[in-house]
Predict the 3D structure of the following.
Amino acid sequence: MSQEFSFTTTAEEVAAAFAGEIKGKNVLITGTSLNGLGFEAARAIARYANLVVITGYDEGRLKLSEDVIKKENPTAKIYRLSIDLASLASVRQAADEVNRLTEPLHVLVHNAAIAFVDFKLSEDGFELHYATNHIGPFLLTKLLVPKLLASASPDYTPRVVFVSSAAHALPGGHDVGFAALTNPDPTNYSRSGGYRQTKSANVLMGFELSKRSKGKINAFSLHPGLIYTKGFDKDYALVHFQNAGILDEHGQPVTSHAWKTIPQGAATTVAAAFDPSLNDKAGAYLADCQAANDQISPHCADPGNAEKLWNITENLIGESFSF
């Protein structure tokens, strides 16, 4: 089925193709504000799923997302979950709430992320990119492992999806940033570097989670594509992308680059969550709804880096995974 998908495939098209796989499934997607990739994935999946848990740190925006999904699909079952991924306390509270739900969890999608922010430490003392894009999702996964394993059956393996970026392989991104993770230092910090390092972490976690679970969980990472979102409007992002030649002097997309729409960008997330042809490709990196391990930068294909990142992060949160 996946061989029919391409650069222009939309999340709705992928969800329709895998409606049978989505039916009866319970899915949690982080970062589901309107007009974003997470929302679009949730909208497409909600048409067929048993339950979609949408998350964000702003309850009002979450309610807007739920309202739009339910207006389109009145029978969709949506659960709103407030979470601040940069706060370990908030992550623990949200995980407790999910674990109290009666339903098991079939798919966990780590979509939420921040990008190109000024140097700042989280309330737990971590650099904000790492806190939001890696450490928070790592802890959330760890705490929801029992809920994921409860969905397993002889013919189904639960999945965890990390929305990464091709930015992990760009110049300046060839570094996992272990020093930034353990000893954040504003004098050695760059906004683009912080983003790229955490997108590298996403790729490494897809590989390492699959490896450590020994077949109990299938994890994947992916590049959604180059998509013009509201994040480009922020001053720091605007200047960065103008300097990179991605946006013009008016802040508009440079047409020489291959841009995707939001529905096209969310397609690979839905494929990673449900395409059965990926069952024997645990840990794979996807692009355009296809396994694309040839696009992984060498530092993210290094098992030693994956193992080191995992061990450091377990130490930082003070907890170990148990499968």
Remarks:
- Residues 2-230+259-314 form a domain with the Rossmann fold fold (CATH 3.40.50.720).
- The mean pLDDT is 92.
- The longest strand covers residues 51-56.
- Strands lie at 26-29, 51-56, 78-82, 107-110, 159-163, 218-223, 226-227, 259-260, 285-287, 290-291.
